[in-house]
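Per reviewer request, we include the raw input and output of the structure prediction for the construct analysed in the revised manuscript.
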Amino acid sequence: MASSSTRSNAELEQKIKRRRGKKERSKEIKTASEKSLSPAPNASSIKGPPKLEPSRKQTKRVVWTINQSEDTKLWMSKPRSSSYRPEDLEAFFRLLEDPISQSLLEADIYFKVSDKYLLSMVVEYFGRVGLPGHIYNRIHFFLALYIASDMEEDDPISKWSIFHTLLGKGFLDEIANTFLKMRMEFFYSMGYRAWFSRELCEEIQAQNPQHWVWSRVRQCSP
């Protein structure tokens, strides 16, 4: 009887141990599965390297574009600064054929008041005033030429020749004053922009380089 009770106790202990082993393994499996199913860390919570901020604001720079390159010469693109239009050039050529304009050109044998550069300024001044090309007449031509001569030469004798040709030998002071007043109105219509560059003159001349007026190169007076 004692031996049989001992066997039963031993068997009971083995069953208890097996149950405990199963429970421990199930706990280990559960723990492992919980770890494998736990959510990954949030990407937003991960701090990356700090962004580099510029130390100062960047300012816009004007970029020049190279249009053409030949040997050591570079042609750079730049904005157009002229105001003349094709109709201004047509009006200028038309007024050159006016009899009074012809008289001035013929009398100016040394081209002191009507060389090709001063005449080029007349075209640009027409553009700066901005009237329709067909409206320009003899008076506008002489006003523009007078302002050009005043800007470049400031020679009283040359400006007197403009008065003499347009108004005649016996012109009255009253008429001269009217012309000077009209000159100021013309100058105002130009926006007081009488400054000129040699490059702009040459650009205007290049529009019709074969025209006879561009052969008026200033001569040295005796």
